[in-house]
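Human: Note token order:
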Amino acid sequence: MDTLTEKTLSQTTAFQGRLLRLRVDEVRLPDGSTAGREVVEHPGGVAVLALTDTEEVLLVRQFRYPYGEILTEIPAGKREAGEEPLVTGMRELAEETGYRADNYTFLGTLYPTPGYCDEVIYLYMATDLHLVDAHPDEDEFLEVGRMPLAQLVDLVLDNRIPDAKTQTAALKAWCLLKKRKDGN
């Protein structure tokens, strides 16, 4: 056994909701002692940095209840059971912005809160966009806008975009595009 690995001894469901489940586990630590772990189980999500031909990013503004504020983010949503991440991303981009893309580049995965949650967010960059028709979920109220990728990166670096998935996707897309331009 790895000297850092913890072994699960027991699991108890403390809460089961529509979106997530809270589990309380007992684990054996690497030194042989035991400890408790609280784990939020989440189905995971997908976020899409949609980039226009003029290097503008499609963004959504929405109220985020846990923070009590309106955040600017890239389109994203929860994965349905058994759904491929790219399918989720395509669906969420169309629902939230009214756009579809002909090309998707996988930017990797993000563990937003590894200390207590098992959520995995899959990140994509979408290009070759064309307008279809937006149809957000009935409980989703959004404003869609655009911003040059360079400006979004500046806002991320200035700590004015607090959303982790948007920060990560913007910086990864910026670096990937720079490498492509430089021929690396």
About this structure: The chain has a mean pLDDT of 95. The first strand starts at residue 7 and ends at 16.
